[in-house]
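Sequence only, no structure available. Ideas?
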Amino acid sequence: MGVAATVLSPAPMRDHTRLRAFELADSLALAVYRHTGDFPRSELFGLTAQLRRGAVSIPSSIVEGCARSTHGDYVRFLDVAFASAREVEYQLLLARRLGYLDEAAHSELAPLSAETGRVLGGLIRALRARGAASTPADGQSFVAAASTQRPQA
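Reply:
I predicted one. C-alpha cells follow.
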C-alpha cells in the first residue's frame, strides 16, 4: 500500500450508539419535543425553539465528535454537548417557572437533563485524564467502558 493510500484512509470512527451519554441525550431530545408541543404559540420562536435546538444539539454534538478523527476534536465536541446540556437544564427550569411545564413534565425532564450532563461531564473528565497518547486508536474501548457505567441503585 502506497503513502497516498495511507494518508487518505479515514480514521476509525467511534460508535456513538455505544455511549450512555448518547442514549440519555437522545431520550432527552425526544422528551423535550413531546413536552414542548403544548407551550404557548407565542413561544414557538422563543423558548420552544431554543429548548428544542439545545436538546437536539446534545446528541448531535456527540455524534459529530465521534466522527472526528482526533482525540482533541472528539473532546471538544463533547464539551459543546455538555454546554448544551447545561443550557437545557436552565431552560427547563425557566419553562417551569413561567408555567409552561407542569410539575410532572418538569419532574421527568429535569433529572434526565441533569443525568445527561453528569454522564457527559464524567466522560469528558475521563477522556482528559486518559489523554490522547494512551487512548486506543479508535478511542472506543475506553470510551465504551467509561460511558456505559450506570449508577448503582
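The chain has one domain: 15-147.
Hope that gets you unstuck.
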